[in-house]
Design goal:
The protein has 212 residues and is an alpha+beta fold. It contains three helices and twelve strands; from the N terminus they run αββββββββββαββα. The strands form four sheets. A five-stranded mixed β-sheet has the order 3-9-8-10-7. Strand 11 and strand 12 form a beta hairpin. Residues 186-212 form the C2H2-type domain.
């Protein structure tokens, strides 16, 4: 205590506690990369103060607008799985790797984009180009509309997932569309949820093990 000139364990009984000044909270790397015409909104607040976020447009975004590349860590397995986000993989040096984002300081804002559940809500298509993953708008996005994504046709085949919801035009993806083949669903033996690929099922089962 500088007032009584004593070194104390804990607070000074005579002069009381120190006034604590906290550092300013710095946004994560992913949040800092968000373009100025996009915004993050909290859609749901779960147990443990976990926020479910979505990316929304603040102004009209034109069709054929490209975002990316997606920033993540190359990994042979996922350390973080979210059923509302796309699982992404890339081909590097002959190997197939996950684009993993274990936390917000390891990725960019694209990690917050949720997957599209149907044709009406899909606004983006994800595809691989030169070892990177990009998102491109497939239609104009109006203000206050959430950006949602699904795989392009060729990328869906690479990911062993179902085909895209929106019929692709020649100018949407740099690769030509391929024939769409039906793929059997993978079923979780614990909760009976279905998944388009074995990689998704495997990641989902890891979550069950963590919970146990």
């Amino acid at each position: 205590c500088e007032d009584c000139g004593k070194s104390l364990i804990g607070e000074c009984r005579l002069h009381g506690p120190l006034i604590r000044a906290k550092d300013r909270v710095i946004p994560s790397r992913a949040r800092l990369t968000l373009p100025h015409y996009l915004t993050l909104r909290v859609l749901e607040l779960r147990a443990g103060n976990q926020q479910i976020l979505g990316v929304f447009a603040k102004k009209v975004i034109q069709k054929r607008t490209q975002f990316g590349p997606y920033v993540g860590q190359l990994s042979t397995k996922l350390t973080r799985y979210d059923e509302s986000r796309l699982v992404l993989q890339v081909l590097k040096d002959g190997g197939k790797y996950f684009l993993d984002t274990p936390n917000e300081d390891c990725g960019n804002w694209m990690m917050f984009v949720r997957l599209a559940r149907n044709q009406e809500e899909q606004t983006l298509v994800a595809y691989q180009h030169c070892g990177e993953v990009y998102f491109t708008t497939v239609k104009p996005i109006e203000p206050h509309t959430e950006l949602k994504v699904w795989y392009a046709a060729d990328y869906a085949k690479f990911m062993e997932a179902s085909a895209v919801f929106i019929k692709e035009e020649s100018d949407v993806c740099p690769l030509p569309p391929v024939a769409k083949e039906p793929i059997d669903a993978w079923i979780c033996s614990s909760c009976r949820s279905t998944f388009a690929t074995f990689a998704l099922l495997e990641s989902h089962q890891c979550i069950h093990k963590d919970r146990v």
